[in-house]
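User: quick one, sequence for these tokens?
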């Protein structure tokens, strides 16, 4: 049987539990004194209080019947323990009032100790100067200056700001209460404050100075060396309004310098109004500023004239929080929510100008690259750098433009703005690259065509030379042998009565002449136009197609079927030339991805088919155009060898060229009528 863990009897033991241990089902039963009790908004309201058992404090959240506890009342709290959102606490506790008790003596931690979270829920005492009073979650909230920091003090029993609370501003006080921490969802502390029961927990150590008796301090004298200074207290300044963001910022300028005041005042002021400000001087980026300012309007006046500066003259020690005007080049004008943001450049310095917008829908940006004059409050931005000649200089700055102010355009940008120049350069660069690519492609195609033409010219030259030799050989040796044979045959009729020996010599001589004539004819036939070399027609067609599409992305496919038969040279040559012309035309005009060539040896015919998937054309329209001889040349070659030529094409559907040799209905021309490529053999046939 598992033994239940022992009940915890002190708050310190509860607070010492880790988050994991606090989830293990432990229970606690402790007695202590209520430091602060309050009702938190809800239906019904949550009852919360801070309990102290003379050693440690703890936060208790109770959802039961109303208790109406008071500071100093003794109670008993019992129930399970949970990890809490920051530290261990009770879950659904049972509260039993036990009468009056005594508050423990308070601790006196520094602000650093408070901010560490170590003293969460402890009863402490702090001293400081009241900076501001206001409302927070329907409770009076006092902002206390302590150790150079601000500590928010919530007063549980004060539901409104009273005149009594207002008189606390600038007074040095002692406050006793429970430490309350603020944290995120990861149990991490993000702020610290104090919860006190009421005004009885606040003791005035040094009352605030009477406003009427406070001297007016020139802005230039704020935070200067003074042995009799009153650190942490308010000072009084007077000046003329130069800029205002109600509830947030106010800029004024006296006879010496400009000043930024952080204030929650909502009263609308106009540029030129003379005001009196009570506030706490604080460190700014380059000059003092004021926090928690309270403003009083003294009268109206004429708006101040801005100081005209250049980018090289921006000295933050002299210009900070002052009204300035400078000439700049507008880079971009944008709208971000209810804020207008202008990116500008003055000389080599980039800066921002910001202006509140009433209705973003009415925002109309100025044109980039315009030359403008901007008027507003100068604020240094970024780290400062000390230069011997000019003093402290800022790396950049901001200009706060009043909502009623304007950015005045001096000169509109020229048409040739930087973006347009860059766009034009991009277009020129793209055209150059495209032209260079086209030139390179053209040069490659020219080299290919030149090589093809050179090869064809060489073949034609060889062909013509072989035909010339064949004609010469035929007209000399072959004709001589033929005439000799003719004479010998005539002589044979005269030797009818000759001796057998004489006729034997004669027969031998005639046989030798006939043999020599046959050899001469074979020699002439060997000199015929060999356009295919040692290759047969299928290999020649494949080689021709591969050569034409070489170095391109076009896919060339060749297939042949049937038994390969040898054709007369002229027919083979013309078939080859027709196929070459069909492939060349497709490459040159149709821009195909694929060219297919098929050669079929059928029983009574030979069928050659060349097809492509290019752009196609209208055959009648192309044939009628001048300068297009490819199709006409194929038709002439087909007629020379007695073949049928069919061209099938339409725009966008590719082209198919079909040559049928030996088909019925087509009568081949006689060999003597063919082109000169077969002349040598035709004469001897």
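Assistant:
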């Amino acid at each position: 049987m598992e033994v239940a863990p022992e009940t915890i009897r002190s708050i310190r033991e509860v607070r010492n539990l880790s988050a994991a241990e606090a989830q293990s089902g432990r229970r606690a039963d402790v007695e202590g004194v209520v430091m602060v009790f309050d009702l938190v908004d809800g239906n019904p309201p949550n009852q919360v209080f801070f309990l102290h058992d003379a050693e440690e404090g703890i936060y208790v959240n109770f959802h039961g019947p109303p208790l109406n506890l008071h500071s100093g009342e003794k109670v008993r709290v019992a129930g399970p323990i949970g990890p809490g959102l920051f530290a261990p606490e009770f879950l659904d506790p049972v509260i039993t009032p036990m009468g009056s008790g005594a508050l423990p003596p308070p601790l006196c931690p520094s602000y650093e100790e408070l901010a560490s979270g170590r003293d969460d829920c402890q009863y402490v005492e702090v001293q400081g100067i009241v900076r501001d009073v206001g409302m927070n979650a329907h409770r009076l909230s006092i902002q206390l200056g302590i150790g150079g920091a601000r500590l928010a003090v919530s007063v549980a029993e004060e539901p409104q700001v009273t005149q009594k609370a207002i008189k606390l501003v600038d007074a040095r006080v002692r406050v006793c209460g429970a430490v309350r921490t603020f944290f995120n969802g990861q149990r991490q502390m993000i702020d610290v404050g104090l919860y006190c029961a009421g005004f009885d927990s606040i003791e005035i150590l040094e009352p605030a100075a009477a406003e009427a008796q406070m001297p007016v301090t020139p802005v230039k004298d704020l935070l200067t060396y003074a042995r009799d200074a009153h650190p942490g207290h308010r000072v009084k300044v007077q000046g003329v309004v130069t800029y205002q963001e109600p509830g947030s910022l106010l800029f004024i300028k006296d006879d010496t310098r400009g000043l930024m005041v952080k204030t929650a005042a909502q009263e609308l002021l106009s540029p030129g109004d003379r005001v009196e400000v009570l506030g706490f001087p604080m460190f700014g980026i380059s000059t003092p500023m004021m926090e928690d300012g309270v403003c009083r309007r003294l009268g109206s006046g004429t708006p101040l004239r801005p100081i005209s500066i250049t980018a090289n003259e921006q000295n933050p020690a002299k210009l900070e929080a002052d009204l300035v005007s400078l000439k700049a080049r507008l880079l971009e004008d944008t709208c971000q929510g209810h804020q207008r943001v202008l990116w500008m450049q003055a000389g080599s310095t980039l800066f921002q100008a910001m202006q509140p917008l009433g209705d973003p829908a009415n925002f109309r940006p100025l044109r980039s690259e315009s030359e403008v004059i901007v008027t507003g409050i100068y604020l240094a931005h970024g780290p400062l750098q000390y230069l011997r000649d000019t003093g402290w200089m800022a790396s950049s700055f901001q200009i706060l433009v009043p909502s009623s102010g304007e950015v005045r355009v001096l000169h509109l940008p020229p048409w040739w703005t930087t973006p347009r120049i860059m766009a034009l350069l991009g277009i020129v660069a793209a055209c150059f690259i495209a032209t260079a690519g086209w030139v390179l492609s053209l040069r490659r195609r020219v080299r290919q065509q030149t090589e093809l033409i050179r090869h064809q010219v060489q073949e034609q030259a060889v062909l013509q030379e072989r035909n010339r030799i064949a004609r010469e050989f035929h007209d000399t040796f072959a004709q001589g042998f033929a005439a000799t044979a003719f004479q010998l045959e005539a002589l044979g009729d005269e030797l009818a009565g000759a001796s057998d020996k004489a006729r034997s010599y004669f027969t031998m001589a005639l046989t030798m002449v006939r043999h020599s004539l046959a050899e001469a004819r074979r020699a002439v036939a060997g000199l015929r136009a060999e356009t295919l070399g040692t290759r047969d027609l299928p290999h020649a067609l494949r080689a021709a197609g591969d050569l034409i599409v070489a170095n391109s992305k076009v896919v060339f496919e060749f297939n042949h079927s049937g038994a390969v038969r040898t054709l007369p040279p002229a027919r083979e040559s013309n078939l080859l030339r027709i196929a070459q012309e069909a492939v060349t035309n497709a490459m040159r005009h149709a821009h195909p991805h694929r060219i297919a060539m098929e050669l079929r040896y059928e029983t009574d015919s030979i069928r050659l088919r060349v097809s492509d998937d290019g752009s196609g054309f209208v055959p009648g329209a192309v044939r009628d155009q001048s300068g297009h001889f490819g199709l006409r040349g194929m038709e002439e070659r087909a007629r020379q060898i007695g073949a049928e030529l069919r061209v099938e094409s339409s725009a966008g559907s590719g082209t198919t060229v079909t040559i049928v040799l030996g088909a019925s209905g087509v009568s081949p021309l006689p060999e003597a009528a063919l082109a000169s490529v077969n002349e040598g053999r035709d004469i001897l046939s």
